[in-house]
Design a protein that fits this description.
Layout: H1 5-12, E1 16-21, H2 31-37, H3 44-47, H4 49-60, E2 64-71, H5 77-93, E3 96-101, E4 114-118, E5 121-127, E6 133-139, H6 142-158, E7 160-161
Parallel strand pairs: 1-2, 2-3
Antiparallel strand pairs: 1-4, 3-7, 4-5, 5-6
Helix pairs in contact: 1-4, 4-5
Length: about 170
């Protein structure tokens, strides 16, 4: 695994990490996504074992990791893929995951890019219009981190826990 800034920060996190995802499609040529589309229902904890292990180690230290996804409904096939792997990947590793319909988030103020806030450090995840990875942008700005955590918490309070959410498809 190439060590990303996000992975490096999670490996040294001491308190909390929150991650807000805003896109309906990510990395359209990702081999794992393409395999899932072709019917390969692989075990994500095995396929992505390095990330899974990092999250398990981080949560074992007592770091709270929360992930919220704002999605358009009906959901895209990619969101169905994310939903399908969440239990065995994110939740099994120790993350808490919630989902919020974009229509129920209209009055919330969220940034235009996915982000992590890990302790007091912000990592924006940038993608192009097609969902291809554009890179990370790290900001060591406690005021920005505080504002983003407030935005995340507003989403989190309104969002449904993974086990209660059923993604509507067309």
């Amino acid at each position: 695994m190439t060590t990303s800034e996000t992975a490096r920060l999670l490996a040294s996190a001491t308190r909390s990490a929150c991650h807000l995802e805003l896109r309906d499609v990510y990395t359209p040529d990702d081999p794992d996504w393409l395999a899932w589309q072709a019917g390969d229902r692989f075990n994500p904890a095995e396929r992505w074992h390095e990330w899974h292990g990092l999250i398990k180690e981080t949560t074992a230290r007592g770091v709270l990791i929360r992930r919220a996804r704002i999605v358009s409904e009906p959901v895209t096939d990619y969101v169905v893929f994310e939903y399908d792997v969440t239990e065995a990947h994110n939740i099994a590793a120790g993350e808490s995951v919630r989902w919020l319909s974009r229509s129920q988030a209209s009055d919330l103020l969220v940034p235009p890019a996915d982000f992590w806030v890990i302790d007091d450090t912000v990592v924006f995840n940038h993608f192009d219009g097609f969902g291809n990875w554009g890179g990370e942008e790290v900001r060591d700005d406690p005021d920005l981190a505080r504002r983003l955590v407030e935005a995340f918490n507003a989403v989190w309070e309104r969002a449904m826990p993974h086990d209660a959410y059923r993604p509507p498809t067309s």
